[in-house]
Structures are given as C-alpha cells and as structure tokens.
Amino acid sequence: MTETASGPARGSRTKGSKVSKGLRIERIHTTPGVHPYDEVVWERRDVVMTNWRDGSVNFEQRGVEFPDFWSVNAVNIVTSKYFRGAVGTPQRETGLKQLIDRIVKTYRKAGEDYNYFASPADAEIFEHELAYALLHQIFSFNSPVWFNVGTPQPQQVSACFILSVDDSMESILDWYKEEGMIFKGGSGAGLNLSRIRSSKELLSSGGNASGPVSFMRGADASAGTIKSGGATRRAAKMVILDVDHPDIEDFIETKVKEEEKIRALRDAGFDMDLGGDDITSVQYQNANNSVRVNDEFMKAVESGGKFGLRARMTGEVIEQVEAKALFRKMAEAAWACADPGIQYDDTINHWHTCPESGRINGSNPCSEYMHLDNTSCNLASLNLMKFLKDDGLGNQSFDSVRFAKVVELVITAMDISICFADFPTQKIGENTRAFRQLGIGYANLGALLMATGHAYDSDGGRALAGAITSLMTGTSYKRSAELAAVVGPYDGYARNAEPHKRVMKQHADANAKAVRMDDLDTPIWAAATEAWQDVVRLGEKNGFRNAQASVIAPTGTIGLAMSCDTTGLEPDLALVKFKKLVGGGSMQIVNGTVPQALRRLGYQEEQIEAIVAHIAEHGNVIDAPGLKTEHYEVFDCAMGERSISAMGHVRMMAAIQPWISGALSKTVNLPETATVEDVEEVYFEAWKMGVKALAIYRDNCKVGQPLSAKKKEQEKAEVTEKAEETIRAAVEKVVEYRPVRKRLPKGRPGITTSFTVGGAEGYMTANSYPDDGLGEVFLKMSKQGSTLAGMMDAFSIAVSVGLQYGVPLETYVSKFTNMRFEPAGMTDDPDVRMAQSIVDYIFRRLALDFLPFETRSALGIHSAEERQRHLETGSYEQSVDDVEVDVESLAQSAPRQQEAPKAVASAAPAKAEAPAPQQAHTSAELVEMQLGISADAPLCFSCGTKMQRAGSCYICEGCGSTSGCS
C-alpha cells in the first residue's frame, strides 16, 4: 500500500509559507543583462517532411525560426512534434523562441509561486539558464513537457507511469481505463499482474479463475486501439509476472505462440508487418513482457534445485518445478521472439528508498523507472558531448564542474514541475506529489566514449561512464537535500528516512570502491566523492525532497532533438552516418567523433585523414592505413564488422547501475547466430553483476521486413565495377554511357492472367524476350474510355518502356509491392491470397512469374507451394533430393541483363556512370547497405523509413516518431 500526500493538491508546500529563504541560482552560461536569444544567429527554414515510399507530404510548415547551428533533423523533429497549435493558423508556434518561452516561463512562475527562489533576480537567472541550456541542446525534458507545458490542455509532464491491479473485476476494469488515459496523454505505463489469482485456483463461486494471461488480452486490444498521444506515437506498456506465479509458463509462452501464428499468416499472404492490416488479429503485440525473478529462484537455477509456485490467495506452494527448466523456457522464448525480458526483484528492492510505503513491484514500459505502484516519473536527459572540453594538442577533459551545475539546474526545474503538473488519475497524482520521483539521465554516452579514445567494452570506458553517472546522481541528491531545506522534504520521507539514508550510503560506498583508470575519469570520481559526502551530510540534516533522482531512459525523440549521435547508454550505431542537408538532399559522413578519438589516441592529421577516408569507403576500420590493431576496439559499434558482444553491453550496464536510482533502459543485442545458451548466460550473469533489469534481442527473431540482401549480389557488383574501371583505363578517350532501348521482336512469348482483387476484376498480359526476360506489360480494367482504363494504359506503357531500357524488374517489384489503396483485399490467386492494392498484386504476380527464386525470396515473395514447404521443412527452397537442377534452364530464367551500351564520344571529360546504388534514408538503412543485410526493425508508420533500436523501443531517425519511448 503506497502512501498518499497529506499536503496541498498542487505541491507539498503552500504559497507564501517559509522553511528557508529560497535558492540562490548561480549563472553557468549566461551574461547579466543579455538574453540568451540575443547571443545566437537565427534563420528561417522550411520544414517539409515526406513519406519517401509514396512521396506524400506528412508535415509542412514554412518559415520556422531556429538558430543557424541546429541540424536539419533536429529542426524537423522539434517543429513537427513539439510546436503547438493547428498548422496554418495564427495560434501555431512558428519558432524555437516561442516553444522554449512557453516552457521556461511556466517553470519560472511555478518556482516563484512555490517560493523556490531567494529573489526575483534568482528567478530571472533560472529562466535564462534554463532557456540557454535548451537552446544549445545541452539537455532536454522528456516529450510530455514539450507537448503539454504552457498549453491550455492538462499539463502532464511525466513520461513514465506504474499502475497496480488487484484480484477483483473492478480493479481489472480500472486498469484498462487508467492505461487508456495514460496512452491518450502521450505516455506509457507498466504494472505487475501477480496479484491476480492463477487459472489453477478457484473463485469464491467455485469455478476456475481466468488467470492474468487471459486478462492481458483485453488490455492488449485496448493499447492497440488507443495510439499513444494520438499522432505522436504508438501505445507503450509493460506487463510483469512474478516467477513464482502458477501461470508463469503460460505467460512466458504467450508471445512465442503468437509469433508462430504471425509467421504462418505471413506465409499465407497476409500483411503482418508493423502497422499492417492483418497484424491486429494477433494478440499480445502491444506490450513488453518481463518476468520478475528473485534470488531464491536464481540460486535454485544455479544449484539445479526445485522452485515452488505459490497460490496468490494463500501463499502456499501448489506446484514444484525444476528451476533450470523454467529458466531455460524463459531463454528459449526470448531467443525466439525477444520476450520476456527479466527483472531482478531482490536487487531492485535492495536499492529502494521507500520500503516502508510499499515494495517495488513494477516498472514503466522501458524498465528504467522502478518505484511504488500508482506513481509517475518525469525525465530529463543531458547531452554528454556538450561537456567534453578540448584542452589542445589532442588532450581532452570532461567539464565536471559545469556538468554538476547543469545537473543542479535541471533537478530544480524537474522538481518544480511536480508542483503544477496534472496527472491522469487521482491516485497517481497523490502519490507522485507525496514522493516526487525524478529521473535525470543522459544521452550520447557512446559518442563520448569513442571521442575520448575509449572502447565501449573496456575497463577505461566503463570507468568513465561510472564516474559520470556517480557524479550526476550524487549531485542530484545533494540538490534534493538543499531543496528539502528550502521547500521541505517529500511527504513520505519521515516514514522512510532510515532506509532512504541507507541507500544513500550504499551509493557512496560503491563510489568509494570504484576503480579509477586514467586522467579522464579520476577527476570526475573525485568530484563525485565530494558530492556523495555532501549527500550524506545534508541528508542527515535536511532530509530529501525527492524519493528518486535518476534513471537512464532511451532518449528516443529528445536525443534526435539534441542532435545526439547515440541514445541513452547505447554505443554508436555505425561509423558512417546519414546526414540531411539544409535546402534538401543528404550525404554520408564519417562520425565527427572518429577524428576526435584518433587525436586522443595520438595520431597526426595526415594519418587521421587517411583513416577517415578508409572508413568512408569501407564503413569500418579494418585494415585502415596506419591504424594500430589495438585501437580497433575503440571504433566498435552496435552494428558492423566489429560489433560489440552481448556481454559487452551487460558489463556496461553493471558499471553504471550502482549510481542510478532507478534502472537502465537497455536491450542487449545478439547476432542471429546466437544460441539459447547465450541468452541464458546474459540473464544469469546480469543477475550476478547487480543489474536490475534487461531484455535481449536476437537479430531477425521477429517477423519484419525481408531478411537479407544477398552478399553475393554485392560482390558481383564490386567485380563488375572493377572490370569497368579496367576497361576505362585501357581506352584513350573518355566516353559517356547512355541506356539503349531493346525492343521486343514481332513474335514474343507471353502470359495472360485474369485476376480479382477486393472484388475488382482485371486482366494482365506480360510479354517477354525470347530469353525469358520480361519486356512488356498490358493491364486491362474497366471499360475502354474510362479514367481507370486510361490510367492503366499509361501505367503499362511507362513500365514497359522502362523494362526495355534495362530497368530491372526487381526494382519495380521493390517499389510497388506493399503500396496500399483501394480496391484491396482477398484475391482469387492461390499464390497471392491478400493484396493491399491492384499494383501490389500485379508486381507480386510478375515477381513469381519472372524473377528467380533467390531474388524474390529476398523480397519476401513466395508461392503457395513454397510457403507450404517452409511450414513442413523450415525452408522455402527445394532440396537437391526434391528437384533435378537443370543448369541450362536456370541460366535462361535469370533476369535479362542490359546489353553493353554503345559508346558516345563526349566533348568534355565525364565519368562513366557507376551502377545505381540503393538509396538510404537514415543511418540505419545506410549501415544495412554497407553490411549487405536488412535487419528486421519495423518501418516508421509516419514516414516509411527503417527505424532503429533505442532501449527497448524503436526510434525513427527521419521524423522522430517512436514506438513508445520518450
């Protein structure tokens, strides 16, 4: 049972009451008499965001005002996501000044109303420093602050919520309602279902209970219907079940069974991609699942003993299971579909500051916020790269003094927000005001480590990350104790004073025992030590204003808004990035952190240029000229030829967990080749290392986009390119290549197909060259002279001429399949049972008739026979025993190659055209092109680009949309 606030409804201190004289606010970045806005150059930009797949405009606002140093991506995301008011109306915000003013002026007014400041001058300094930090992307509040603060709508500032549910129908229905209200406000929620009695227990009426897994269906359907925050992002939720619950095996297997269903439906022709028409028929897809394990269970796993499953009503053991076997089932399920994650109950509650008010049972959707039931947490994250100082001659240092001052500023602002914030339910409002949980964190850790010459998976990297984390949390609690002297401790502190001070001592002791590694982390550890000494001293005297201070969030949208290279505590995605340019267009660039790292490691500018050029060409550092092999690890990334190992991720989590109040939003990535034993190792070693929670993700374990682009095709293209270079070197004059049309002969073989899509009938005639390469398509629908018939004729001519000029059929197939418009639905073709449009059906049929198996398989297109074979054997392809391979027929069925173009003399030197590269739209897609693979991350539901992982969620680098993180 959680404690509720006994103070006023809007804060724990009434206006005008006095505990102390208020805070003196110190200047960090600003100049007296000069507003931060006057120190930067402003410019007008046009924000036009399109869906690259169909060219439609998703968002457009012209003439927005931003500082000239803001990146295109940051401008686009902040304008489209955070500006308030209807587009095209006078009420719409038109510049960053309006947005920042809306927030910081609200915070200043609340700070003055609730007597946080010693004087009006201190309030003005607070406003200016907060504005400066937001303007210069030094930190960011979580998204709900940007959405709601200073607007007429409810001022919900929290992104993370924990609910509770009891074993009654009334409580279960309240759960559905409360979750829906939180989703509507643009946030996510999590809860533990373990109070609900199992399906193996009886109801008071004598019948069997439904069990929590059954009630999860209703909540899942609700989450799928209510998109979080309307157009802002999808619903995000977490469901947890204790490992001793009698229904634990059913809970573990829920998503595994549904994943099998997804594969079967996909193979039958249904659209099972994220956002697809048919994915809604599958259950349990709108939540992250986690099992809450305790030390008793983990020790039974370690010793090979039995473990008891307990009745919810009586607590008696009703079944004994083999702990290792149950642990194995968890690992197998996570290996198969990435769920469930794992949470370590005893570790979590060992660091609990308020145990007298209740246990920690649940977490938010991304597992970084863990505290009392029916509470919330507002987040803010600092951009660590903003505190890296260049001391000259390649020397760098972390500005720990300025970092600590910014932490104090941000914590003050975050606490003020609880005074004026609105909450989705009365219980959450009361408990949040009573305990005032905060979640300060950071982004860009991966970039910082690389820039300072530290490998992510290294003792030095972990020491630097630990030192920064310790200083951040120590400074936060120090400021919390100072706030307690000014406006009083949180209402639940008196009851929890001793355990709170005990946890502070645990943090301080961990800081004292930490290993110092080099000249970068040692001064930060010293500053952290001083901060923790102040925490213990001031906490004993004043108490604390906040029950919790820090978490590490995924920093999805806000990370992009701050132009961070890496999110949360994640390593860098890759060494080469996709960058949007002012005025349109894009370019590929080598991360700016790479040259910084090389300077830190002692390389000269000439060497740096050569290494950067090598990375730009190859996407990795392997065999880079002059780069020492012992320095390769500094440039290891989340993806690429040298990707960080799973245990490397776990070790980093363990290195910073002792100085985080809550937990860490982190998914441990595993390669597709990882085994169930690898998953078991991650889950077991994380417990040993003191991590509070984590989830794993094995590449391609979930149904997503086509699995892989063949490396053989990439190698073939490289051989062809080298051959063309040799030929060009052999000829004396420079030539210009132009495509030449190859017309079909008078007599040509063809296939005529009748089809029905969603009730609309039509005919397609596909004619081919004598060597079987497709060269012509005719489509007949509706009556001659109608608009539809005319458009189909024009479309047929355009496609046919393109084919005759050498446009590969697979290019058309990749562009036109999955295009969605009416008529759509069931077809009469057994190979393509469902089509999203006429065009989608046509090109799937053409792919089946004219593309070789390998090519269309990579595009995810298979016949009914092949899908049936996959269900029976696990492979779409016929085995050698099933079919006698006819080499001649295979050669004939290969796609037609463009004839060697005729050379045309050019008056001026010109480069011969290289093969047209595949187009990337984000850094994630660029990495996939370089590696010759296609990861199974979902496509953004707003702009169609490939998303990338951010903690337990996904983030779209193109438009900032997320699958649930803040």
Automatic annotation (TrEMBL):
SUPFAM superfamilies on file: PFL-like glycyl radical enzymes
Domain Ribonucleotide reductase large subunit C-terminal, residue spans: 158-697
Catalytic activity, reaction form: a 2'-deoxyribonucleoside 5'-diphosphate + [thioredoxin]-disulfide + H2O = a ribonucleoside 5'-diphosphate + [thioredoxin]-dithiol
UniProt cofactor(s): adenosylcob(III)alamin
Biological process, per Gene Ontology: DNA biosynthetic process
Biased composition (Low complexity): 897-920
GO molecular function: cobalamin binding; cobalt ion binding; nucleotide binding; ribonucleoside-diphosphate reductase activity, thioredoxin disulfide as acceptor
TSCPD domain sequence ranges: 748-848
Name of the top EC class for this enzyme: oxidoreductase
EC number: 1.17.4.1
Region (Disordered) residue spans: 1-22, 891-922
Highest taxon, organism lineage: Bacteria
Pfam families: Ribonuc_red_2_N, Ribonuc_red_lgC, TSCPD
Ribonucleotide reductase class II vitamin B12-dependent N-terminal domain boundaries: 47-137
Keyword field: Cobalamin, Cobalt, Disulfide bond, DNA synthesis, Nucleotide-binding, Oxidoreductase
NCBIfam families registered for this protein in UniProt: NrdJ_Z (TIGR02504), PRK06556.1 (NF005122)
Protein family membership: Belongs to the ribonucleoside diphosphate reductase class-2 family.
Function: Catalyzes the reduction of ribonucleotides to deoxyribonucleotides. May function to provide a pool of deoxyribonucleotide precursors for DNA repair during oxygen limitation and/or for immediate growth after restoration of oxygen.
Protein name stated in the entry: Vitamin B12-dependent ribonucleotide reductase
The species this protein was found in: Streptomyces ficellus
